[in-house]
Each structure stands twice: as structure tokens, then as C-alpha cells.
Design goal:
294 residues
Length: 294
């Protein structure tokens, strides 16, 4: 596949409007597949680059990042990719002992794929949610070990999806339609039912204490349960949890998420997570597929 420059692509993608994403039921009836879509039929983030940490007040139109973010990414000298040995953030991001065969992402590759989050991450607009690539890399590589991701194609699929859903690590919770869907979030931007299941699997005592005797939780309870998995390690691992637990027929299956196959990625979007393919998702996948190396 012809190498696609992430920086050049930003200018193109900023002009693309978000296609409607009506959830599509998964084709498989296997119990390991999700019975409801994991993702919203509308975007999770704001169109305009917020100047404060307040909830956005308008519906999104750009597909990738805001126009302001795209311009900053294209013109900032921080976009140049540092050597993988530069800076303590990079030397500590990859654990010293990695099980044989587990895929790991290189710092320089992530910076090329997500240039808006190089260095300090250009996070002043949303400081309580936004993460730099250095922060993301550490959590991502831990998650790849935790869920035993050995195939590059799986890493590319999940990373491109999380980058798109979170607007390049800018958002960690849903903000649209305003004031946001209660309980929806993580970098994977999962609906609350999956967030609750994920939180219970990782933090059962805290989650059960918040949920009490059962019944439909209040909006504030949903948000409190979501808070349990918004830390970097859990949030950046959420996409890999979904692959291995809710769409497991795609995990470590040589007939699924085939290396370098855009059609296989679309199959995962439609029949794995249960939503529709879009130009935005396709463009993100092409960037990550072109840049992330084994």
C-alpha cells in the first residue's frame, strides 16, 4: 500500500464531514459477539476546538480533528518525529520484559500516526481528558501485553478506531449530543452497557458498590461507574478488551482482520462492533496501517 503521510492527510480529512453512523446489528449470533452496538450513531466529540474544558455547544462536522487542531498539527515543529530513544517518556514507555510474540508499538510510529499529540500533546483545550502520545504509548503497550495481542493487524484496527473515536486522544467521555450520554466513554467511546461490564470485570467491588441492588442506574451513577475505567491503563485498553471479550471471533483468527486488508477492517466495524463503516474510519485505518511497523 502506498505510504500515506499523516500530516498531509490531516488537511484532507479536516474537510470531510462525519457520515451518519446508524448502528448495524452484528451478523454473528455467537455468544462472544456483542448483542448491541458498542458505538454511537453520532460523534462523541465537538467540531470546534474548545477553548475551555466546558462541554461543547455545537454538533461536530469535521471527521478527524477540529480545523484549528489540523492547522496546528500541520505547522507545528513538534510534528517532527523524535528518535525512539529521545526523552524519558519514550525510554520508559515499553516495558522491559515483553512476552515473546506480543506486538508493541514504537514511539516514533505513534508520533507519525497521531502528530497532533507529539510532545506535550497540545492538550490545553481539554486538559482533563486529553493525553499526549507518550502517555498513550505506555498504556497501549501494557494493554497489548495484557490481552496478548500478537498480530499487527489487530493492533492497527483497534488503535485506528480508538484514535478516531477519541479525536486523537483528545476526549475520554462522550460530549454529544450535549451534555453527553451518561456513562459513555473510554478512548474506545463505548456505550454505557459495555462500560459497566468492563468496569465490573476490572473493579468489581467498586462497581458493585456504586450500582447497589440493581435496577436502572441513575445518570450520576453511570458517570461514577465510567470514572472507574477512565485512567490511562484501563481507558486505552478498552478497545482490546472489546476485541477479546465482545468480538472474540475476530481475535487471533487468521480469517479475520487479515494483515493489510481494509475489507477485513470493515468487517470488524460492521459485524464485530456493530456500526457502519465511514470514510473517516477508513482514512484513520489507512494512516495507522501505513505507519505502524512490526
Amino acid at each position: 500500500m502506498k505510504f500515506v503521510s499523516a500530516i498531509a492527510l490531516l488537511g484532507l480529512v479536516a474537510q470531510v464531514t462525519v457520515a451518519g453512523r446508524c448502528p448495524v446489528p452484528p451478523a454473528s449470533s455467537a455468544s462472544s459477539q456483542s448483542s448491541a452496538p458498542a458505538y454511537s450513531s453520532t460523534p462523541a466529540y465537538s467540531a470546534s476546538a474548545p477553548t475551555t474544558d466546558a462541554v461543547p455547544t455545537s454538533a461536530p462536522t469535521p471527521a478527524y480533528t477540529s480545523a484549528a487542531e489540523s492547522t496546528a498539527a500541520a505547522t507545528s515543529s513538534a510534528v517532527s518525529v523524535p528518535p525512539s530513544s529521545t526523552g524519558s517518556d519514550y525510554t520508559t514507555a515499553v516495558p522491559s520484559s515483553v512476552p515473546s510474540g506480543v506486538f508493541q508499538v514504537k514511539a516514533a510510529d505513534l508520533d507519525r500516526a497521531v502528530p497532533a499529540r507529539v510532545g506535550d500533546g497540545n492538550c490545553s483545550a481539554r486538559p482533563t481528558e486529553c493525553a499526549s502520545n507518550a502517555r498513550a504509548l505506555s498504556a497501549i503497550n501494557k494493554a497489548l501485553q495484557k490481552y496478548n495481542i500478537t498480530r499487527r493487524s489487530e493492533a492497527v484496527a483497534i488503535l485506528s478506531l480508538m484514535a478516531q473515536e477519541s479525536a486523537d486522544w483528545m476526549f475520554n467521555i462522550n460530549h454529544y449530543p450535549e451534555p453527553g450520554r451518561p456513562g459513555q466513554g473510554t478512548r474506545n467511546m463505548m456505550f454505557y452497557n459495555f462500560v459497566e461490564e468492563y468496569a465490573k470485570s476490572l473493579h468489581p467491588e467498586q462497581a458493585n458498590a456504586l450500582l447497589g441492588a440493581g435496577g436502572e442506574p441513575s445518570d450520576s451513577t453511570k458517570n461514577a461507574v465510567r470514572e472507574l475505567v477512565l485512567n490511562d491503563d484501563d481507558s486505552f485498553a478498552s478497545g482490546f478488551w472489546f476485541l477479546t471479550h465482545k468480538a472474540s471471533s475476530f481475535y487471533n483468527n487468521p480469517a479475520k482482520l487479515i494483515e493489510g486488508s481494509e475489507a477485513s477492517f470493515e468487517d470488524y466495524i460492521v459485524n464485530g462492533i456493530g456500526t457502519s463503516m465511514s470514510d473517516t474510519r477508513r482514512q484513520y485505518w489507512n494512516v495507522f496501517n501505513s505507519i505502524i511497523t512490526a
